[in-house]
Amino acid sequence: MQELKGKSIVRGIAIGKIHFLSKSQQTVRRVKVSDAEAEISRYNAAKDTAVEQLQALYEKALKEVGEDNAQIFEVHSMMLEDDDYNDSIYNMIRTQQINAEYAVAATGDNFSKMFAQMEDEYFKARSIDIKDISERLVRILCGSDSGGELSEPGILVAEDLAPSETVQLDKELLLAFVTHLGSSNSHTAILARTMNIPALIGVPIDEAWNGLMAIVDGYTGKLIIDPDLDVLEEYEKKQQKDLEQKALLQELKGKENVTKSGKRINLYANIGSVSDLAGVLANDAGGIGLFRSEFLYLGRDTFPTEEEQFQAYKQVAETMAGKKVIIRTLDIGADKQADYFELGHEDNPALGYRAIRICLTRPEIFKTQLRAIFRASAYGNLSIMYPMIISVSEVRRIRDIASEVMRELDEAGISYGQVEQGIMIETPAAAIMSDELAKEVDFFSIGTNDLTQYTLAIDRQNAKLDEFYDSHHPAVLRLIQTVTDNAHKAGIWAGICGELGADTTLTETFIKMGVDELSVSASAVLRVRKAVRDCE
Amino acid sequence: MKSFTYVIKDAIGIHARPAGLLVKEAKKYASKATILYNGKSAECTKLMAVMSLGVKTGTEITVQVEGDDEEAAAAGLEAFFSANL
After folding, report:
1. Of A71, A74, A83, the CB nearest to B45
2. Does domain A25-142 sit in CATH 1.10.274.10?
3. Which of A8, A14, A522, A524 is in Cβ range 3.0-4.6 Å of A279 for a Cys bridge?
4. What is the pTM of this model?
5. Is the ipTM reported for this complex over the cut 0.95?
């Protein structure tokens, strides 16, 4: 038995034989040809065949996994017709008098390297598309088939998967994906989500596993090769439970979040980027209780412009079609760093220069974000939430800046909607001062991860402290009660947006406390709904 | 020569699919159309060259059109950008 760890893309459990997809191991040899023009005709014929194959794949994908997943094949056809790509191949054949296979492989390498070196993640990922079309051409030229066929139900393991490889597989036989490379935004990840089968990335793979029994645990990101009998039995039970749970939850879609005695609670989803919206809709969340805006700032070299931010917020507002969307302003610093902010080194970043503290000392960054949110509020039901608050004076400074932004928009004749402004309660200071703070804002959202860490003075990343850590510590629960009571006294609502919100052993406690809203990851929405409906 | 500037509104930027459609549009005209971005340039009829510019959302590009039908080509391309990007 061997256990490996990767990053889970789709939750769920799969048990089956490993089908190892080896990357076209056809080593392409460089061969001299006497008739370059004949070789070019051979290449052109292969290209025509490739375009036909892609058309067939497009239609297959369209039927099986929908337009969004199918479009990639249309793009591949267009890439095959690219002048620079074709000219490079023609040139190599003519000037070096070499075989088409080698010219294609060499050109494919050059072009895919060019994309692999780009900074932007989207464009970087296009290198795999170029490899994919080049490998297709080489296969056609050599007369070999793809070798990616599944003959029995299996867990597909590969270094990386090209979209054409995943779509060709028989969906009925595919139990899970495991890859070494790939990102959570790759085609394969998107496909795994569409098909709702477990998928792991970042697993160091080994071809020797081919044909071995394995378990994919999409909840913990574990891959277990050749499991011992007791482990296998344990997972068979887990899988059974998982399937029952999934079926049950599917029944709960569209149902109200109401207890047996008629108490209601709002159930919203937390999202970290625009691409998470699909999960929010699929899991029937009532709104978005925490939209982490950091994704707009991370993984780049310059500040996002107002226009870029506006487009992202507008898209979320429009997609949610009138349902509440709470955008949390920039929460960078601590474990989330972007070099261009030039924040400098800190010995104790969790207690450092982060979130609202950056926004209040560098108001130009803050105002750009606020302007973008206010502008987008004309397209849906947006609220703003400010993180890491410790005092009333901070809230007043923030509201002054927000009023200034609104005044400037008025002067410029730009419209915006009604925007509720609330704060995160994630410091003990904010929880203790919540009676005063409640008079200044429209709502509270309790961030239990940081609130617990700061209240217990325990760093969750430090495994040595696990024995001291209690996620249900009465100090934290008392603070939640205090915050909720103080919110209601001032006539505003209070919700929970940390991990604790999805802890169904506490759902009943929260409802009794009077918590008005729980915001959890999209995949947990239905599980929490079930817990709510089981409460008295 | 005709030229215009345009700010990309698509959330990803000039990504694969619209870039492919742009190539089709540009091939309708005899004029040579070039995108200038961030000190680099690419002919609109070349898909991979256009994509390798890595044009991101919210940034401004300049399109230069030169040739016999440059009036029509510039107008056609400008309309294409507004509709697709």
Report:
1. A83
2. yes
3. A522
4. 0.56
5. no
